């Protein structure tokens, strides 16, 4: 099972590390290995959230996620995205941007760093909306009830998550503008960039998420129509497979997953510059990490881990919220990537531990109930 799921990841790791040695020797090998670990540690919460969406999709779309999705994730976000950002921010052609990335790495790194406020605002708002929509939803299973119960009641207010996200964006942009003004006003226009990029992230979330939700609702209507057929199949003893997302619904869910992955990858791409400004090594290292995240997503789906450890999804969404805040803060202040990765790992580990405790408590309760039943039967006899 492990080899089947992670086989491609192991193969890509071997090829990537060999390519690194040929490209830049053993130093390049070490850099690629470090970048791979960085990407996996920063994106574990991404895998958990992805698994929650992917389990609703058919086997065909799961394969698309692992093939086409990987190409988009590895080549699109880890290789093309940094170049596109430089091309847009520096107002140069894509070929010139590629030439700059390969031949003038220091200047290329400066341009990407200058584009960071726009990247952080877009990704931060997209991830913040995911967290807010999750935390304001009234759900049967609650992890941190003292937080989630009152927030679920507040969530009944229409558009609350959008209002809070916009308030956060305004505060961030205002703080950034004030900071820039204190330094002579040379970068006051960056506040406008933050606002525009943040609103773009919000719109992207609402459009892609809205379309996904629309087609998912359509699918639920179809499931209701087929409910009678499923009952008939159960009576006759023929097992009818569960309806899973397909067609337009699956396509928009796939699109949502790709935008989600893009938002998660922002911190990894920016953080990679702390280790190297060589775009080839970045693509190799982050690409290997992205493969493991994809494989881990599928592994979680096939093992039914989210069903067994019910608080994992909660922990991942809290990690998303933390990452969103961190991205917005990095517009003005530098935060070490180790801190970013540790926050996500700690929250997910905590939610996993809570899930294990819950499972043990339920098992103990069932065992006690079974013992009581046996005692009652023995007494009756």
UniProtKB/TrEMBL annotation:
Sorted UniProt keywords: Membrane, Transmembrane, Transmembrane helix
The keyword Lyase is assigned to this record: no
Transmembrane segments: 7-26, 32-53, 65-90, 118-136, 157-181, 193-215, 241-257, 269-294, 315-333, 339-356
Protein name in the entry: DUF475 domain-containing protein
A Pfam family: DUF475
Domain of life: Bacteria
């Amino acid at each position: 099972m492990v080899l089947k799921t992670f086989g491609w990841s192991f193969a890509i790791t071997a090829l990537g590390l060999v390519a690194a040695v040929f490209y830049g020797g053993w130093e390049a090998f070490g850099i690629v290995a470090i970048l791979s670990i960085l990407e996996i540690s920063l994106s574990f919460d991404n895998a958990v959230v992805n698994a929650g969406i992917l389990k609703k999709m058919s086997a065909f779309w799961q394969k698309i996620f692992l093939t086409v999705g990987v190409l988009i994730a590895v080549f699109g976000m880890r290789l093309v995205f940094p170049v596109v950002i430089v091309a847009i921010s520096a107002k140069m052609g894509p070929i010139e941007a590629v030439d700059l990335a390969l031949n003038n790495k220091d200047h290329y790194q400066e341009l990407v760093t200058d584009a960071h406020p726009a990247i952080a605002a877009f990704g931060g708002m997209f991830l913040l909306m995911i967290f807010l929509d999750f935390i304001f939803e009234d759900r049967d299973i609650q992890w941190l009830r003292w937080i989630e119960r009152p927030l679920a009641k507040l969530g009944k207010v229409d558009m609350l998550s959008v209002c809070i996200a916009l308030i956060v964006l305004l505060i961030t942009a205002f703080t950034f503008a004030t900071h820039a003004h204190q330094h002579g006003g040379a970068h006051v226009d960056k506040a406008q960039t933050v606002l525009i990029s943040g609103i773009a992230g919000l719109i992207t979330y609402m459009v892609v998420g809205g379309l996904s939700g629309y087609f998912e609702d359509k699918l639920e209507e179809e499931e209701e129509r087929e409910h009678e057929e499923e009952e008939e199949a159960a009576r006759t003893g023929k097992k009818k497979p569960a309806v899973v997302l397909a067609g337009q619904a699956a396509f928009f869910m796939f699109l949502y997953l790709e935008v989600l992955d893009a938002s998660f990858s922002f911190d990894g791409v920016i953080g990679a510059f702390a280790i190297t400004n060589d775009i080839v090594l970045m693509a190799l290292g982050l690409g290997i990490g992205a493969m493991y995240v994809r494989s881990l997503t599928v592994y979680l789906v096939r093992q039914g881990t989210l069903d067994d450890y019910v608080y994992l999804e909660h922990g991942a969404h809290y990690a998303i919220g933390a990452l969103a805040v961190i991205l917005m803060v990095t517009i003005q202040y530098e935060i070490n990537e180790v801190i970013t990765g540790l926050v996500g790992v700690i929250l997910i580990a905590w939610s996993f531990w809570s899930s294990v405790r819950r499972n043990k408590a339920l098992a103990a309760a069932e065992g006690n109930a079974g013992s009581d039943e046996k005692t009652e039967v023995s007494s009756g006899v």
